[in-house]
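Task card 7
Instruction: Convert sequence to structure tokens.
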Amino acid sequence: MQSLRLTLVASLIFSLLSIKTVTAQSTPLAGYTEQSSTTERDWEQKFRKIPTAENIRENNQRLSARPHNVGSPYDKDNAEWILSQFKGWGLDAQIETFTVLYPTPKSRKLELIGPKPYTAKLVEPAVAGDPTSSQQSEQLPTYNAYSIDGDVTAPLVYVNYGIPEDYEQLERMGVSVKGAIVIARYGNSWRGIKPKVAAEHGAIGCIIYSDPRDDGYFQGDVFPQGAYRNANGVQRGSVMDMPVYPGDPETPGVGSTAEAKRLDRKDVKVFTKIPVLPISYGDAQPLLEQLTGPVAPEGWRGALPITYHVGPGPAKVHLAVSFNWDHKPIYDVVARITGSTYPDEWVVRGNHHDAWVNGSEDPVSGMSPLMEEARALGELLKQGWKPKRTIILAAWDGEEPGLLGSTEWAETHADELRQYAVAYINSDGNSRGFLYAGASHTLQTLLNDVAHDVQDPEKQMSVWQRKRSRDITEAKSDEEKKKVRDRKSLQASALGSGSDYTVFIDHLGIASVNLGFGGEDGGGVYHSVYDDFYWYTHFDDTKFVYGLALSQTAGTAVLRLADADLIPLDFAAFAETVKRYDEEVEKLATDERNKIIEENKELEDGDQVAAADPTKTYVPPAREAVPPYLNFAPLKNAVDALAHSSERYQHAFTQAEQNGGAALAKGSLTAVNAKLIQSERALTAEQGLPNRPWFKHQIYAPGFYTGYGVKTLPGIREAIEQKKWQEADAEIGVVANTLQNEVTVIDAATAELEKVGK
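Output:
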């Protein structure tokens, strides 16, 4: 009986899921008529059956076979091979070449001068059994790109992660870094922030190391026994001040073509102000264990077998680095499938192909699935499919040093992209596990719909269901779990920076998506020589099935955007998100004001106690001025207007979808789509963000002191965080005007949509 009951329950659940699946399949896709939806689902199903894990594996092995950093022979060889593959699949493809400033190490030296002298090894030795780790003559030495040259000797100070709040803690401890060399561990911010903040506090040099607590033996077995960073592993990476602008440092805002006017190197503002060098935790331990001074706070202590002291001294450190400041070619491989109905509406899909060394995970695990997407699209073309919109597939070069290839290409084609680009879909490295998506929130519903249609390769459910289950599991309270269960959609994260979508959304105002799988991998070889095919096939997506899932997910999103009758943007999801951001910055302002008032009150209480002692002359400590109340009314009014406009558009959209989308089939949608394309552009301001005009988007941007991490409503939020109250007040007006511009575009699209079918 128990077995029979279980069988009946299982049958009922299967029947309910089957009914739900059939209903979903019979419901027209957003932006499609009933007829075009049926056709689209058929093509999408055909598409998802074409990519194979075996091909993705072969692509990965080929692309990561040798080191292929910018300027290397294999970087060019890979670009030419990708081009030949694209052409072989019937795609119209070419290489677009740009010339960029790309420094590489000339000399590196780090030594401890003191009672126990030590000279850092600064090498990553080959590992037995890992064939490509021995390609030492081709490997780029460990360094941080766009550090300035420098030769400095000074006491050493440990600054934890080297972010602003760490320096506040040092000040409370009475420790100064002025005139010192700092040593910071990787993590909790983008690496370029560490030397930036150190220089602002008077440091003259910066060392960055990987602590085993963060990605070494504290997390698990180290390579080659396990996935995590061993004592010799070093994270290379750029320290260009990309929150100011990414791309070729000498050509901000314009493509680095032969005709481009270049800045003189002395006028470039994105180089570090002090010399920087990354090291392994094997090289870091002898430095850290000779520090004295206060014992580091508990949260600052890593996993090295030492007592973590802050310093300084007694030993000093000698840091010397110099670079070859050369110009190198980069090779963007760009393929195009011209649209049959709307050739001047573009859907762009990209992933970069360059790596710091072999880069099997970063970026080849993302590049290989894109190649399978390209092959699958070529197969569909042979079967008679033609996209309504033009599809552009790009393999970017130079992402690792500073988003060079994508930025220079987009700046070169900026006028066309502003006019024609519907959306940009990005991926980078890919791992195994759960779907993660960052996006413009107008594309959130589209991503949810796509995620429902792609099956997880290891579970009997969609990637949407699996991610939702993960979100419920990770919720920290019953209330949060209920919120996740009650939501009808997965929430896309806001986009900051750190990959090739940056120029599209932040500079040009093109709705963007960043996709990938992860959460079940052990990451400990990032930007080291050990990120290679051997490591990836032993410790990551070993069967390349999540590479296949990425190919199916990103490719389906491309197809759905390219073939839709009406571009499927969801302004309601965007309006809801912006309302939440407004509430956050208002609370931030109130909390900051209350905090200052409370601190001043504590000082006043201390004054009364100190003044009561007649034996001492008392000088009251300085008070921080209580900030003025900020006038958020213009922003709240704009947020309300956005909500009303979104509702009106959604009503028109729903009306157009009735009767199988008869109105969509009957009327011309050219004018509506033209307005929709401009909706993300309306969220930019020509003057850009304060002190960084390259970043023009007013809703999303990387933080000035986070680098990759996003700041939403960045002009307002960062002004409050930095206590620039007049600037915050001005930025409220800027964002309010920006949202009113968005309302105007949405209303115009609504008016055009209401005409359709009449």
